[in-house]
Amino acid sequence: MDVLLFGIAKDIVGRSEIQILAEDAVPNSVQELKAFMIRKFPDFGKLSSFAVAVNSEYAEDDVPLDRNDEIAIIPPVSGG
Amino acid sequence: MQKKIIEIVEKIDTSQVFTELSDAQSGGICVFVGTVREFTQGEEVVSLEFETYQKMALKEMDKIASDAIQKWNLNKVIIRHAVGLKKVAEPVVAVGASSAHRDACFEACRYLIDTLKETVPIWKKEMFENKTIWVSAHP
To answer: What tens digit of pLDDT does each residue of B56-99 get?
Structure first.
């Protein structure tokens, strides 16, 4: 499963994309992905919040994830 | 001419906006331009850098524009955001609307920028003399 990273998420991980491999127990939902990111990179727990986008739409915690989805971590936005 | 202009660009040319929103059915055009401010909480900003998840940002901007058109019966709407490195006083975002009467475009203009700031996946990094900060990232 590939996850796109932007803004501070990219800085925390040190890359613009991460691959979650089968041996990591691939997250099955948005909520599981959020928990996975905080476990793997504790700095995500220090953010004001972060959202997940599935196929370039904001996704609620209960949305299931498929490995073919385009998944992205959306840290607090600050455009304008 | 198209009703909505939704763009992410390298550089904003504010002189285009009037022509783009100009419309025979409209009695008013309202535009908001966001620019780089020199001081943030007393500290001098050297530059700002914007980054985006472009595919999603364009989708979210399009939703905002469509909602505004429906809500205020606008004739034309523009939402244009810049990415990359921006210096003090440079424009970074331009939103605007044209409508039959001014109340609608004034209200719509505020809605466009306020909603953009809440939902569109664009991130701003403030560069100071000795540090850089992703705006809003931490409580």
So the answer is: 999 999 999 999 999 999 999 999 999 999 999 999 999 999 99
B46 to A32, B34, B39, B88: CA distances (angstroms): 39, 17, 9, 7
Distance CA B108, CA A3 (A): 35
Where in the sequence is the domain holding B33, given as residue range(s)?
4-134
Q: Which residues pair with A5 in a beta bridge?
A: A73
Q: Is residue B139 in some structural domain?
A: no
The answer to whether the CB atoms of B59 and A56 lie below 8 A apart is yes
* B35, part of any domain: yes
Q: Which of residues 43-102 of B touch A (CB under 8 A)?
A: 50-53, 55-57, 59, 81, 92-93
CATH of the domain at B15: 3.90.1170.40
Q: Which of residues 14-73 of A touch B (CB under 8 A)?
A: 46-48, 53, 56-58, 72
User: Counting Cβ atoms within 10 Å, is residue B63 exposed (0-12), middle (13-18) or buried (19+)?
Assistant: middle
User: Domains in chain A, please, with CATH?
Assistant: 2-74 (3.10.20.30)
Candidates B63, B134, B135, B138: best to mutate against A (most CBs of A within 10 A) is: B134
Q: How many domains does chain B have?
A: 1
- Looking at residue A21, what is its pLDDT? 86
The 10s digit of each residue's pLDDT in A4-57 is 999 999 999 999 999 998 777 899 999 999 999 999 999 999 999 999 999 999
